[in-house]
Write a structure and sequence with these properties.
By secondary structure, this protein is of the alpha/beta class. The protein contains 14 helices and 11 strands. Helix 6 (about 160-165) links the parallel strand 5 (about 150) and strand 6. It binds iron/sulfur cluster. Pfam families: PAPS_reduct. One of its GO terms (molecular function) is catalytic activity.
């Protein structure tokens, strides 16, 4: 549920802009994590007279305690908090796009966080939902111009620094936790703020209620152990999403022989039925999707394929052979196992054959079953997780987040 504390910037704050000289602006990208609290504290201490804003982009999928935490930080540090939201959860976004994201493709952080922020700060485009808390602490109404952006990125995430700096040009970016020795736990104590629930449960990030769809086996095992109901719900959502996406792809498939393609007018009817079956479920208005029979069920046998999609992937046990050209017989055996060499007539070129083990879907259902039957095979070090606010390409950067989605 969205946290509804509706405020607007009051006249007092607006008028103040006219009577004080222009102050330097600082915007803290506030993720709801303790590191971003530490970044906020750093800025307050270094620039106590300046205009400082906490900025939170809501995925509507956060842990309930995150909202308590961000409110408490805003109140106790006496900083205005601006919340922006595209109005969709990551699951709803996947349903709208008919994609199941995983750690290789995943637009939820881009569309629900980065683009919302980027559209607003760079282009002045507001998303569908905006809320303020403590706007009276805003020292001037123009809080974007020449602002420095702050991220609570620590040493362990230093590899993200370059991408973030590039992504936010022309703003200047600062990551106080990399350049300074700051202990977020000390800052929590200093303000007597309780850390967010997810940290207490042993999660390393306070993101999306521990359900990050880019997470790995170790993370999901922890989710299952600490929040079994949340894990079970996510498992069900992944299953229904997979069925929905599989049916969608099947209906619109134009790679099969023309005589086997579903005619346009039937496609439209089936797509409407598909939407009717799943929409209320993914928007939280129904406990289960309505009955929808996957059209592959009544297809000729060679097309009777219900494809699986999942958040996690794992290496297939069945290798596939592949070929590529190389000018040298030297090759990296670490990268390409079991290579076989064949020389071409052109002696400078070699056709190299190798075996690779493609990745295949590893659903939470399969994971759940393996975790019970073969717990020793679970890769506990495969944590994965959200890479929100990292670099994304210019083409995407130029797209607006004002895309509207049905609810
Ligand atoms: S935490 Fe994971 S699920 Fe949530 S927005 Fe980031 S990438 Fe997506």
């Amino acid at each position: 549920m969205i946290h509804l504390n509706k405020y607007s910037v009051n006249d007092k704050a607006k008028n103040r802009e006219e009577i004080v000289p222009l102050l330097k602006n600082h915007i803290i990208f506030f993720s709801g994590g303790r590191a971003s609290l530490a970044a906020a504290d750093f800025v307050i201490k270094k620039y106590p007279e300046d205009n400082i804003l906490l900025y939170f982009t809501d995925t509507l999928w956060e842990n309930h305690d995150t909202y308590r935490f961000i409110d408490e930080v805003s109140d106790k540090l006496q900083l205005p908090l601006l919340i922006h939201c595209a109005g969709l959860t990551p699951i709803q976004l996947m349903f709208e796009k008919k994609l199941v994201y995983n750690n290789m493709i995943g637009d939820c952080s881009k569309l629900l966080k980065m683009r919302v922020a980027s559209d607003y700060l760079k282009k002045g485009i507001k998303p569908g939902i905006e809320q303020w808390r403590n706007p009276q602490y805003l020292k001037q109404n123009n809080f974007i111009e020449n602002a420095t952006l702050y991220f609570g990125i620590g040493f362990e995430e230093m590899h993200r620094e370059k991408a973030i700096v590039k992504n936010w040009l022309p703003f200047s970016v600062n990551m106080p936790l990399i350049e300074n020795f700051i202990r977020p736990d000390d800052v929590l104590k200093q303000y007597d703020i309780r850390e967010p629930e997810l940290y207490k449960l042993g999660f390393s990030h306070n993101n999306c209620n521990g359900r990050c769809i880019k997470a790995g086996q170790g993370h999901y095992r922890h989710l299952k152990k600490t929040m079994p109901d949340t894990f079970k719900k996510l498992l069900e959502e992944e299953f229904h999403l997979s069925m929905c996406v599989s049916a969608y792809r099947y209906i619109i498939d134009d790679q099969v022989p023309e005589e086997d393609q579903i005619p346009q007018h039937v496609q439209e009817k089936l797509l409407q039925e598909l939407d009717d079956a799943y929409r209320d479920y993914f928007y939280g208005r129904a406990d289960k999707p309505n009955l929808f029979i996957h059209p592959a069920a009544s297809a000729q046998s060679e097309y009777m394929k219900i494809r699986k999609y999942s958040f996690m992937k794992k290496k297939s046990k069945t290798p596939v052979e592949f070929e590529y050209q190389t000018e040298s017989e030297e090759y990296d055996t670490d990268l390409i196992p079991d290579l076989l060499f064949e020389e071409n007539e052109d002696t400078t070129q070699h056709t190299t054959k190798g075996l690779r083990f493609p990745s295949e879907p590893y659903t939470l259902r399969d994971f759940n079953r393996d975790e019970k039957a073969k717990p020793e095979q679970i890769d506990l070090f495969d944590i994965g997780g959200c890479g929100c606010f990292v670099e994304f390409d210019e083409q995407e950067n130029n797209m607006s987040c004002n895309t509207t989605f049905g609810g």
